[in-house]
Every structure is written in C-alpha cells, then in structure tokens.
Amino acid sequence: MPAILWLADRSDSWGRLYAVHLLRQVEDPRARSWLLRQAVNGDYLNQYFAGDLADGLAIHEVLGAPSLDDGLVDHLGRMLRMMTDCHGMGILLADYPFAGAAVNAYARHAAALEPSIDRYITLHALQKWSLAQSSPAAAVLTALMQRPAWLDGVRQRLLDPQEPWHPGGPWVAERLSLDVEGLDP
C-alpha cells in the first residue's frame, strides 16, 4: 500500500490514471483519504476518473458534512469541475445522480472560503453548469462570484508578485478585465 501511494503522489498524466485505478481497488483508509484529497491534480486526463471517483467515494455525502477543511473542499470542487466538461471521457456531472446535492454543498462550503484563483475557476465552471441545469446552486454560486470583496481578493492574488503563478491566472484576469500581459510566467 505505501508503495502505491508513493507512486500515486509522483505520477502524472496516464501514470496517475493507472495509480488512481489501483488505489480504487484497495480497501484501506489511507487510499480513500488520498483519493478524496489528492487524486485530481488538474491534468486533463483526470476527466477519465473524476466521475467514477465522485460516485465511488460518495462525495455528495462527504460535502454534506457541516464543516470540512479547505483542502478537502478545494479538491472535491476540482473533481466536480472536471466532471462538467468530460464528454466521452468519464461521467459527466449532469449524469452523476447526486450532482445537485454535491454542487449545492460545495457552494455552501466555498462561500466560507477565502478567494483564490483556483476557486474562482471552479466556481465559474460549476456556475456555468448550474445555470445550464437550472440548478438551485446557480443563485448561490452567482452571488458568491459577484461578491465585491471576494472578487477583489481574487484580483489581489492575481496581481501579487509573491503569489505562485497559476496556469489559469491569465484566463481569470481576462474575465475580471485585468491587464493580462504582466501575468505570464
């Protein structure tokens, strides 16, 4: 078990896909914890397994807890985000039976978190999905994304030279009408 976790932590692309597949077959709390917190790293190929993980791990139940740590909320949000646009690769969020509950619960938790570039990208994807599905979460996500203090926090992170570079930063800056030239690595 520790060897698979070691490999999974260091895998990317197709290697990560295989490592996640192996960990899903292991009945060990360490494997479940890693899958809930680290499986989705933002790679395009995560779309192959995000929906299966969401279903197998019952993330709607995990997100239904009254309080979760920021890292867990962020990871589960990324998992949901991967499911919004994985046509032909994995389970689409629209096909996930507990999508509404999971997105509503994520929105509730996200509203209590500090703004970040990654959270903005996740919120945008889930808001777009919620609007298309006429989900009740759309109102919560839209209100959060329009909250002036939250948007100012995202802008500050984009413009802070001490903030680590985020690959989605230029896209977020463009959406928030910021000068994107200064944001390239």
Distance between the termini: 37 Å
Q: Find the count of extended strands (DSSP E, 2+ residues).
A: 0
| Number of helices in the DSSP assignment | 11
Query: Helix/strand-derived class?
Result: mainly alpha
Q: What are the segments in which pLDDT stays under 50 over at least 5 consecutive residues?
A: none
Query: What level of helicity do the residues show?
Result: 55-70%
Mean pLDDT: 90
Tell me the strand percentage band. under 5%
The shape, in one word, is globular
**Main β-sheet: number of strands, strand sense, barrel status?**
none
Along the chain, the helix and strand elements come as HHHHHHHHHHH
Rg measurement, Å: 17 Å
Overview of the structural elements:
- The model has no long low-confidence stretch (mean pLDDT 90).
- The chain contains eleven helices and no strands.
- The chain is mainly α and 185 residues long.
- Helix 6 crosses helix 7, helix 6 packs across helix 8 (117-133) and helix 7 (99-110) packs antiparallel against helix 8 (117-133).
Question: Which helices and strands appear, and what pairs or packs with what?
Answer:
Elements: H1 2-10, H2 13-25, H3 29-38, H4 50-56, H5 59-63, H6 70-83, H7 99-110, H8 117-133, H9 137-146, H10 148-159, H11 169-175
